[in-house]
Each structure stands twice: as structure tokens, then as C-alpha cells.
Inverse folding.
């Protein structure tokens, strides 16, 4: 074999060997990346595992849960079927209150579901307060109305006024008997 052919074959062999080495490097890099991803997933799952509550750690877990509740969340208690003898009378069964578990006062608005018209607004309800029997602000004719009770969590400003902090809406059925 002439010398130039030998050199060409060696050059081809080196490039094939180099290709094999590069391929092995790429495979090794992919394996390392996959292992890192698997380790990261295992660590994430280990940190997020549920804690088993027992007598020793009950208080600590309870405190951690309280810290995790978002500031804008709140509780209210109410029933969802309200009856009024007529459009100008107080409700005979409406219940609406600000839970004693809350840290902020609330206010409420009752809106007709089909028009969005506000038919009743409360003032500020302090924590733990329940709305006394109330009349609607609008004289409704006899009938059944779909409504939404919007409850607004309030934030007290430095001047003593309140601003809406967060809110939630609840479906209510209003029946005006006469």
C-alpha cells in the first residue's frame, strides 16, 4: 500500500475514533443530566412529603399550617335561602355573619344575579358579628330571585376608613312571599 493511502486510512480511522469518543461524551453528558434531574425530583418530593401528626409535633404542624394560610382568605357563615314576607319587611330567616376566626371585618352586598343590581348593602361587620334581621334596600315584587351575596374582607386604613382587601361571592335564593 502506498504511503499516502495509509495516511488517509489512518485519518479516516482517527475521525471514526474521534466520532465514537464524541458520541460517548454526549451519551455520558445526557446520563449525568438525567441523573441530576432524578436527584432534583427526589429531593423535591422528599421536602414536600406530608408530615405525620402525633402528640409531639401537633403544635408545630398546627402553627406551620396557620402561617401558610394566605392573608386574603376569610370565613363567613350564612344560609342561602332567604324569605321576606313582602318587599318592605325584614327577612324571617336570613343569616349572615363574620366568623370569629377572621382577623378583619367584612361588608356585604346582595346583587340580583340577572341584572347585577345591588338590592342590599351592609355596613362594616366586625369580627364575630352577625347581621341582625334586615330589610332589602329595594322593594321587590312577590317572587323568587336568584342573587349573589358578595362578601368583602376589609382592610382598615390609618384614617379609620376601610378598603376592600379581597372578596368572594355566594349564590343566594331570595323569596318574596307577597
Amino acid at each position: 500500500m502506498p504511503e499516502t493511502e495509509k495516511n488517509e486510512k489512518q485519518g479516516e480511522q482517527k475521525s471514526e475514533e474521534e466520532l465514537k469518543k464524541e458520541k460517548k461524551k454526549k451519551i455520558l453528558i445526557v446520563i449525568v443530566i438525567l441523573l441530576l434531574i432524578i436527584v432534583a425530583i427526589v429531593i423535591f418530593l422528599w421536602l414536600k412529603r406530608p408530615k405525620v401528626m402525633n402528640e409531639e409535633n401537633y403544635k408545630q404542624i398546627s402553627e406551620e399550617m396557620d402561617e401558610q394560610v394566605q392573608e386574603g382568605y376569610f370565613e363567613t357563615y350564612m344560609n342561602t335561602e332567604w324569605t321576606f314576607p313582602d318587599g318592605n319587611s325584614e327577612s324571617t330567616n336570613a343569616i349572615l355573619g363574620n366568623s370569629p376566626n377572621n382577623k378583619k371585618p367584612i361588608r356585604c352586598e346582595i346583587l340580583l344575579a340577572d341584572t347585577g343590581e345591588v338590592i342590599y348593602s351592609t355596613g362594616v361587620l366586625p369580627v364575630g358579628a352577625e347581621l341582625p334581621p334586615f330589610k332589602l334596600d329595594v322593594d321587590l315584587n312577590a317572587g323568587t330571585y336568584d342573587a349573589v351575596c358578595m362578601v368583602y374582607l376589609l382592610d382598615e386604613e390609618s384614617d379609620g376608613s376601610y378598603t376592600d382587601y379581597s372578596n368572594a361571592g355566594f349564590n343566594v335564593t331570595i323569596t318574596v312571599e307577597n
Remarks:
- The beta strands are 76-78, 81-84, 96-98, 106-112, 118-121, 143-156, 162-176.
- The chain has two helices and seven strands.
- The chain has a mean pLDDT of 84.
- The two ends are 115 Å apart (CA to CA).
